[in-house]
């Protein structure tokens, strides 16, 4: 299962480079973009030749891969310890002392829906007092970093915009990193968060929630027009998805030479309320994959794009990071792909039964009930 997931990630990376190579008679800007994409693939392949060290609570496993992308390295390291179940966190102080930075998923870790999880404020305050850097990483693309800052504030948490990394921001950051041509547009099949981050990056865009009100005339001989200047389609979670958006995104990707397919995440489910699971962003991404037969560049977890961006931005050594999350296939895999320490909390999606299932091959370094369990490491008052 995990091997197939890794192979899929590698195929997405290679597929995205092929998509950029499709246009006939490319402009100089497109050629520059192509070169950068190819360089990125070559870098991933070259990194796969280097030995890595997989840190775990059990042992340090040295891994060397002869071919494939860097995500395959992480799979090799994970497979080596998959048979050994993750231990319960019993020495929180040792874990805290072993890293400089904590990356926290949000929904299921910090809050559930609009309700703060018990003990979160005290835990974050303790970690800050111990000199730890805190970063909050979410696959939710419906909000911008600024909007997320307001949500933290509404819950009584003092978190700066610089400490928040949402997949909406990751999509804009990715396009900036590949020098997306200024004369091209992005079609957004998603919500306002993506649009706001594209605005901040100075990237032209169309679509978004406004297209949720549009319909298609399917009368005899009707033809749907689309903008030939769209150079990328960004797909994220979209509560306003309709057939108009599906067709528009499909036309751009199938008929515009070199049009990029970018997904904020491929999460199967999300938590709009704390009462049940709801269809996630992967639902929208899957629809466009089906209509175009293309694989997207995924910029959210478990892709390493956000991890690499964070490490470079803050100057963080990846072996000094602990990723804390409630999902095995996104949060924990994200940490493992980045060669970080990993802590699974059972306050969100994953249950202990799922973690210990024979079918589960993704094992964190540790697991615990919720992040307030880290409070056991609080210094004793003098």
Features:
about 375 residues, six-stranded parallel sheet, elongated
Helical coverage, percent range: 25-40%
| CA-based shape | elongated
Low-confidence stretches: 1-83
The main β sheet shows up as: 6 strands, parallel
Mean pLDDT: 83
* Number of helical elements: 13
Class of secondary structure makeup: alpha/beta
The protein's oligomeric status is single chain
* Strand arrangement in the largest pleated sheet: 7-6-3-15-16-17
Query: How many E strands?
Result: 17
What is the succession of H and E elements?
HHEEHHEEEHEHEHEHEEHEEEHEHEHEHE
Our estimate of the beta-strand percent is: 15-25%
Distance separating the two termini: 51 Å
Which value, in Å, is the CA radius of gyration?
A: 21 Å
Could you characterize the architecture of this molecule?
With 382 residues, this protein is of the alpha/beta class. 38% of the residues lie in helices and 16% in strands. The chain is built from 13 helices and 17 strands. A six-stranded parallel beta sheet has the order 7-6-3-15-16-17, sandwiched between helices. A five-stranded parallel beta sheet has the order 9-8-10-11-14, with helices on both faces. The chain has a two-stranded antiparallel ribbon with strand order 1-2. Strand 4 and strand 5 form a beta hairpin. Helix 1 (2-20) packs antiparallel against helix 3 (70-81), helix 7 packs parallel to helix 8 and helix 9 crosses helix 10 (281-292). It is elongated. Residues 1-83 have low confidence and may be disordered.
């Amino acid at each position: 299962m995990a091997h197939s997931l890794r192979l899929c990630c590698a195929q997405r990376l290679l597929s995205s480079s092929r998509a950029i190579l499709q246009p006939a008679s490319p402009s100089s800007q497109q050629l520059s973009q192509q070169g950068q994409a190819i360089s990125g693939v070559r870098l991933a392949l070259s990194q796969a030749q280097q030995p890595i060290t997989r840190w775990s609570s059990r042992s340090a496993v040295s891994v060397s891969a002869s071919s494939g992308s860097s995500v395959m390295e992480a799979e090799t390291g994970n497979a080596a310890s998959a048979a050994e179940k993750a231990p319960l966190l019993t020495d929180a102080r040792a874990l805290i002392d072993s890293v400089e930075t904590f990356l926290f998923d949000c929904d299921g870790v910090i809050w559930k829906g609009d309700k703060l999880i018990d003990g979160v404020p005290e835990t974050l305050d303790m970690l800050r007092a111990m000199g730890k850097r805190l970063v909050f990483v979410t696959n939710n693309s419906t909000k911008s970093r600024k909007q997320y800052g307001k949500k933290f504030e509404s819950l009584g948490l003092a978190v700066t915009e610089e400490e928040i990394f949402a997949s909406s921001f990751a999509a804009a950051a990715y396009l900036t990193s590949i020098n997306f041509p200024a004369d091209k547009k992005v079609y957004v099949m998603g919500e306002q968060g993506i649009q706001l981050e594209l605005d901040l990056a100075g990237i032209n865009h169309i679509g978004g929630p406004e297209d949720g009100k549009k319909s298609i005339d399917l009368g005899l001989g009707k033809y749907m027009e689309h903008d030939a200047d769209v150079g990328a389609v960004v797909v994220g979670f979209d509560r306003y998805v309709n057939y108009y958006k599906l067709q528009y995104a499909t036309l751009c990707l199938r008929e515009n030479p070199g049009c990029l397919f970018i997904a904020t995440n491929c999460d199967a489910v999300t938590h709009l309320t704390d009462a049940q699971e709801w269809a996630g962003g992967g639902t929208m991404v899957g629809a466009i994959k089906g209509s175009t037969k293309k694989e997207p560049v995924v910029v959210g977890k478990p892709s390493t794009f956000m991890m690499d961006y964070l490490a470079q931005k803050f100057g963080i050594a990846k072996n000094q990071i602990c990723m804390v999350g409630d999902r095995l296939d996104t949060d924990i895999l994200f940490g493992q792909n980045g060669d970080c320490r990993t802590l699974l909390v059972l306050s969100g999606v994953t249950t202990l039964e799922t973690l210990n299932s024979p079918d589960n091959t993704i094992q964190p370094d540790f697991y615990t009930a919720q992040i307030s369990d880290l409070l056991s490491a609080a210094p004793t008052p003098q």
